[in-house]
Design goal:
It comes from Alteromonas confluentis. It holds the Pfam family DDE_Tnp_1_6. InterPro entries: IS1182_transpos (IPR047629), Tnp_DDE_dom (IPR025668), Transposase_InsH_N (IPR008490). This is Transposase. Helix 8 packs antiparallel against helix 9. The strands form three sheets. Strands 1, 4, 5, 6, 7 and 8 form a six-stranded mixed sheet that branches. A five-stranded antiparallel sheet has the order 9-10-11-12-13. The longest helix has 30 residues. The chain is built from 17 helices and 13 strands. Among the domains are: 92 residues, no CATH class; 74 residues; 75 residues, no CATH class. It is of the alpha+beta class and 478 residues long.
């Protein structure tokens, strides 16, 4: 006889069956999922089959399948087959779905066919957070993170890769042709001759395939082709490795680390600042926001566009000048005087605004002093040209970018705040996903999948901030 706690007999019948609701505590997160979906107007959000047809076999209500997916992404179960398994053994899902158990095909089809509705449901939860004053400070950190796509590097082709493979195959063909030439001079077993001819035929066929692939790549606007997921691209990751992936852009609130908005792209960060800032303004319903970003977002046109939106932005500038490698003075050695509209060179001479030009869509003022530069004793440290003077080019809106950099210099804690804010959601979502890739392909489906990740992340954050019961009450009252 032991003093351990004993369980109940599995074959013992009970007079009064237990109620399923008794197994789900009031603080169970599954109740949030149930209340949130019940309060949504699924028809207005664009979900299909909200109104069932009067004829034909009955289908599942979209609310049932949306609850299933939100629960799955909250609990690191994203696969439709795994969700099907859980509906038959998971007590929380039995309660949430009222003991319904759709098959994996029905589950997968729902995610495929209701992408827009799922994205709007995700936005609806963000708006709920806004109404609960979660974004009162109006400061967001913007960043992008690379998420692996359903496409290996083997099935991704660039011009360089195609040329390298063609050169490798041509070398193999030359090797086997030389070996066939030696057959006449040496006694070679017949099986070896057949093997060489088979390999030669295979490599010739492969060469034709690669040459065709090269033509396809060169005709593509991005000069890159992915065979498994055509929308995925080969991009550099943080450790400078290359990976076929998507670049997920997000704007994260600095107060509670909630994701305000997100988007799926297949390009690098440059050029995304103004677009993400505008998207944030629309969702927060306010223009006076501050967006923080890293140096990968620095673009003078983008910063000007962001400021024109009425927002403030803080983005560090990178020094991309190649002057030091050439052994001449860096641009930073030339000081601009806004009152006189001149540059002072390291020799102390004044460089005057001589002309205006347009480069890469930017209007630039050009400053130089031909006479002073011609007689300068340190000319060889300033320019490599023997005839032309050193020129300084200044964007006509450079003062706005310089004012932004001055504000950034006066707020040295900004880079730390940005990193602590925006890296947290990405790290959490990637941990939930595990060492894997997106389960779906193409922009449309990957965007739907990311919306489910973001909705689950924000929901879990709000549970941590407010608690389950308080959040349940807020959703019902909202």
């Amino acid at each position: 006889m032991t003093n351990h706690i004993k369980g109940e007999c599995r074959i013992q019948a009970t007079l009064f069956p237990e109620i399923l609701d008794d197994f789900i505590s009031e603080d169970n997160p599954v109740r949030i999922v149930d209340v949130f979906v019940n309060e949504l107007d699924l028809q207005e959000l664009g979900f299909e089959r909200v109104q069932a047809k009067s004829t034909g076999r009955p289908g599942y209500h979209p609310a049932t399948l949306l609850k299933l997916y939100i629960y799955g992404y909250l609990n690191r179960i994203q696969s439709s087959r795994r969700l099907e398994t859980e509906t038959n053994r998971n007590l929380e899902l039995m309660w949430l779905l009222e003991r319904l158990a759709p098959d994996f095909k029905t589950i997968a089809d729902f995610r495929r066919d209701n992408g827009e509705g799922i994205k709007l449901a995700c936005r609806h939860f963000v708006i709920l957070c806004r109404e609960l004053n979660m974004f009162s400070e109006g400061v967001v950190a913007i960043d992008g993170s690379k998420f692996k796509a359903v496409n290996s590097k083997t099935n991704n082709f660039t011009s360089k890769k195609a040329n390298d493979l063609i050169a490798r195959v041509e070398a193999k063909i030359s090797k086997y042709l030389l070996e066939l030439d030696e057959v006449d001079r040496k006694e070679v077993p017949d099986n070896r001759v057949r093997m060489v001819k088979d390999k030669l035929a295979w490599f010739k066929k492969r060469l034709g395939e690669l040459q065709e692939m090269k033509r396809v790549v060169e005709a593509h606007p991005d000069k890159q082709v992915s065979l498994t997921d055509p929308d995925a691209r080969l991009l550099k990751t943080r450790n400078m490795e290359r990976q076929v992936c998507y670049n997920i852009q997000s704007a994260v609130d600095t107060k509670h680390h909630l994701i305000v908005c997100h988007d799926v792209t297949n390009t690098n960060d440059r050029g995304e600042l103004a677009r993400m800032t505008k998207l944030t303004q629309e969702i927060l319903n306010r223009k006076d926001i501050t967006s923080l970003a890293d140096k990968g977002y620095y673009s003078r046109q983008d910063i000007k566009a962001t400021l024109d939106l009425g927002a403030e932005t803080l983005v560090p500038k990178t020094d991309t000048s190649g002057s030091e490698r050439k052994g001449i003075f860096n641009r930073s050695k030339f000081k601009y005087d806004p009152t006189k509209d001149i540059y002072s060179c390291p020799a102390g001479e004044e460089m005057i605004n001589r002309m205006r030009t347009v480069e890469d869509g930017l209007e630039l003022d050009v400053y130089f002093n031909h006479n002073a530069c011609k007689e300068c004793k340190i000319r060889n440290q300033c320019t490599t040209s023997k005839r032309e003077p050193r020129r300084m080019k200044r964007w006509i809106h450079e003062a706005e970018a310089e004012a932004m950099l001055e504000r950034l210099a006066n707020a040295p804690e900004t880079p730390v705040i940005r990193k602590q804010t925006v890296e947290h959601p990405f790290g959490t979502i990637k941990m939930w996903m595990g060492a894997t890739h997106f389960l779906t392909r193409r922009f449309k489906n990957v965007s739907t999948e990311m919306s489910l990740h973001v909705l689950a992340y924000n929901m879990k954050r709000m549970m941590a901030i407010m608690g389950v019961q308080a959040l349940t009450k807020a959703i019902r009252e909202g």
